[in-house]
C-alpha cells in the first residue's frame, strides 16, 4: 500500500528530487491497531531535519496523513518519506518547491524472540561512514553506505552489522544505534560527524537518566567497544537487542541491558 500526497498511488514523478538526489528525509514507524507508535518523536526528528535541509515540511499535514494511512494499514510498518518535491535538472533547489509526502506500508518484520532474549551476533562491516557534519544525525534519503554495508554478509547467523567512520570510530549498526556499558555507565557514540540519531536512542538516553543511570555521549574506539562490559543495539521497531558476539569477543547479556529493556518495554506495543 502506497499513498502519495494523501492519495493511493504506485509511483512518483521522474523529476522528484528525492529520486534524483536523495533530497529528503524519512521515518519508519511501527503501526499497531491502526495507530503509529512514537509518532510525536518521529515527527519531532523529521521537523529538525526539515530545518537543517531547509525543506518546508508541513508537520500538521504529515501527522494527518500518517494517522489516516495507519488507520487503513491496521498493523505493519509505515515508512514516511518527505522529499523536497519536483525540480529541473541541476543541484540548486528551486526557489519555489512543493514538498511531496510518500507513505508506504509493509508487514511487521518477524524478528526472532531469541534476538531480544539471548542476544545477537554482529558482523564487522568494512564499509566506512564518511564524515559530513552538515548531515550528521539526520535520517536523510542518502543511504548508499548502509546498502553497501548490508551487502557484505549473507549469513543469517548475523542479525546486524557494525559500522565505523573513516577514522575507525564506532558509530552505529547498519539499521540501529549502539550502546556499551562500562563500569555501570551507559555510553553511546557521538554522532557529530556522521550517523543517524535514532528515536529509540533518544528515548533510551532520557529514560536512563530519569532512572539514575549515568550516561555519556562520546567518541568510542573499536578497542573500547571490545573492552566493554555489555553491548546492545536498538531501534524503534524492535527495541533492544543485546550483542552477544562480535568477531572473537563474546559478551554476556548484562544486568543494565536487561534493566533498560524493562524501561522501554511499554514501547513494544503502540502508544
SSE layout and pairing:
Blueprint lengths: L1 E3 L2 E2 L8 H5 L2 E9 L2 E2 L2 H15 L5 H15 L2 E8 L16 E7 L6 H6 L1 E10 L14 H7 L7 E8 L4 E4 L3 E6 L2 E5 L9 H12 L4 E4 L3 H5 L3 E6 L3 E8 L2 E2 L4 H9 L8
Parallel strand pairs: 7-8, 7-14, 11-12
Antiparallel strand pairs: 1-2, 1-6, 3-4, 3-5, 5-6, 8-9, 10-11, 10-13, 13-14, 14-15
Commentary on this structure:
- This is Aminodeoxychorismate lyase.
- One of its GO terms (biological process) is folic acid biosynthetic process.
- Homodimer.
- With 271 residues, this protein is α+β, with helices and mostly antiparallel strands.
- The chain has helices spanning 17-21, 39-53, 59-73, 113-118, 144-150, 199-210, 222-226, 255-263; strands at 2-4, 7-8, 24-32, 35-36, 76-83, 100-106, 120-129, 158-165, 170-173, 177-182, 185-189, 215-218, 230-235, 239-246, 249-250.
- The strands form two sheets. Strands 7, 8, 9, 10, 11, 12, 13, 14 and 15 form a nine-stranded mixed sheet that branches. A six-stranded antiparallel sheet has the order 2-1-6-5-3-4.
- The chain starts with a strand and ends in an 8-residue tail after the last helix.
- 38% of the residues are buried.
Shape label:
globular
CATH superfamily (homologous) name of the largest domain: D-amino Acid Aminotransferase, subunit A, domain 2
Beta strands, count: 15
Largest sheet: 9 strands, mixed
Mean pLDDT: 95
Please give the radius of gyration in angstroms.
19 Å
Amino acid at each position: 500500500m502506497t499513498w502519495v500526497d494523501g492519495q493511493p498511488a504506485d509511483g512518483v514523478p521522474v523529476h522528484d528530487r528525492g529520486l534524483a538526489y536523495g533530497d529528503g528525509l524519512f521515518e519508519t514507524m511501527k503501526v499497531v491497531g491502526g495507530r503509529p507508535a512514537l509518532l510525536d518523536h518521529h515527527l519531532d526528528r523529521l521537523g529538525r531535519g526539515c530545518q537543517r535541509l531547509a525543506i518546508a515540511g508541513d508537520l500538521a499535514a504529515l501527522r494527518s496523513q500518517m494517522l489516516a494511512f495507519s488507520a487503513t494499514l491496521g498493523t505493519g510498518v509505515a515508512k514516511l518519506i518527505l522529499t523536497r518535491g519536483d525540480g529541473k535538472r541541476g543541484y540548486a533547489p528551486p526557489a519555489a518547491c512543493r514538498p511531496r509526502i510518500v507513505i508506504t506500508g509493509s508487514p511487521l518484520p518477524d524478528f526472532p524472540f531469541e534476538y531480544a532474549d539471548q542476544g545477537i551476533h554482529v558482523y564487522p562491516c568494512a564499509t566506512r561512514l564518511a564524515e559530513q557534519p552538515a548531515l550528521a544525525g539526520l535520517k536523510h534519503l542518502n543511504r548508499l553506505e548502509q546498502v553497501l554495508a548490508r551487502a557484505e554478509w549473507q549469513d543469517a547467523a548475523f542479525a546486524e552489522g557494525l559500522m565505523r567512520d573513516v577514522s575507525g570510530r564506532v558509530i552505529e549498526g547498519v539499521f540501529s544505534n549502539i550502546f556499551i556499558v562500562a563500569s555501570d555507565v551507559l555510553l553511546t557514540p557521538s554522532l557529530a560527524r556522521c550517523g543517524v540519531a535514532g528515536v529509540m536512542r533518544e528515548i533510551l538516553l532520557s529514560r536512563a537518566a530519569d532512572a539514575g543511570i549515568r550516561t555519556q555521549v562520546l567518541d568510542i574506539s573499536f578497542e573500547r567497544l571490545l573492552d566493554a562490559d555489555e553491548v546492545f543495539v536498538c531501534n524503534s521497531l524492535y527495541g533492544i537487542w543485546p550483542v552477544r558476539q562480535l568477531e572473537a569477543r563474546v559478551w554476556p547479556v548484562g544486568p543494565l541491558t536487561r534493566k533498560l529493556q524493562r524501561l522501554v518495554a511499554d514501547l513494544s506495543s503502540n502508544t
